[in-house]
Amino acid sequence: MSTIHSKSSCFFFRIKSRVRLDKVGHRYTSQDVNPPRQIPREKPAVQKKSFLSGLPLLIVPLATFGLGTWQIQRREWKLKLIKEMEEKMQATPVPLPEDLKELKNMEYRKVKVRGTFDHSKELFIGPRSNLHAADTMGGENKAASMGVHVVTPFKLADRDETILVNRGHVKFQNRPPQMRSAGQVEGEVDLVGIVRLSDKNMYMKSNPLKDGFWLSREVEEMADIAGTSEVFIDADINSSVPGGPEGGQTIVSLRNEHLTYVITWYTLSALTMYLWWRNYRNPRISRSMLQTVKQNFRKT
Questions:
Q1: Over the chain, what HEC string results?
Q2: pTM, entire model
Q3: pLDDT digits (tens, 9 = 90+) for 248-285
Q4: For a Cys-Cys bond, which of 123, 232, 278, 290 suits 219, CB 3.0-4.6 Å?
């Protein structure tokens, strides 16, 4: 009976010894009476950061979202403006108003005038390509079609006023009046033109005394030199004459890149909002920390 008891005691002692871990790395020997209790982590591996600490980053997605929404409004305004300009271009010509100051609110509106050209005071705007030439698609052909717009004082028949008329395009070699004598119209003529104002936001300043032409449409300066009223119209295609300037050179174009801006701002808003959410509302354990935890787990 005692033999059986001693064998049982030895059996349980062996089992208990196996439960106690041998000391290899982080393990404990059977000599330790009680292995140390596992101490809970004082700080979690991933902590949610406070809302206030993430407020500066949250401002970025909110601000870019507002800018994207604003660009949508700007795009609608620009499309409406382009539509209005096209309607003005297609409208029936109206007589030139008695008060010429009204023309400041009539850009791209067609007007009809009658008068006489003063070819002795021609001015030029260039370099310009001919909008109606078939060879303006690029390369050498486009370079060959480059020239200037001929701007000529026009004495009105029904009042004591002289305005500026952009008669149209001529090539550089035809800029001297003697090269296009057939186009120097004499006597009273009827014209239909489009009201134009000075070009805006021009970064290169014109030097007509050096270049012989203006780089942009500067109505006030050109009117001062020619001694005319500050009124400028582009003659339509019907004003073209053989050997002379070719009319109808009005370009109706407004930059409309607001859709690109909308996509840019909304994309930036989405990305920064995602970064804020990952860092302050739904943080995750980093890969380096995750690898460390896995390695320690394998050792145990």
A1: CHHHHHHHHHHHHHHHHHHCCCCCCCCCCCCCCCCCCCCCCCCCCCCCCCCHHHHHHHHHHHHHHHHHHHHHHHHHHHHHHHHHHHHHHHCCCEECCCCHHHHHHCCCCEEEEEEEECHHHCEEEEEEECCCCCCCCCHHHHHHCEEEEEEEEEEECCCCCEEEEEEEEEEHHHCCHHHHHHHCCCCCEEEEEEEECCCCCCCCCCCHHHHCCECCCCHHHHHHHHCCCCCEEEECHHHCCCCCCECCCCCCCCCCCHHHHHHHHHHHHHHHHHHHHHHHCCCCCCHHHHHHHHHHHHHC
A2: 0.62
A3: 888 776 677 778 888 999 998 888 888 877 777 665 55
A4: 232
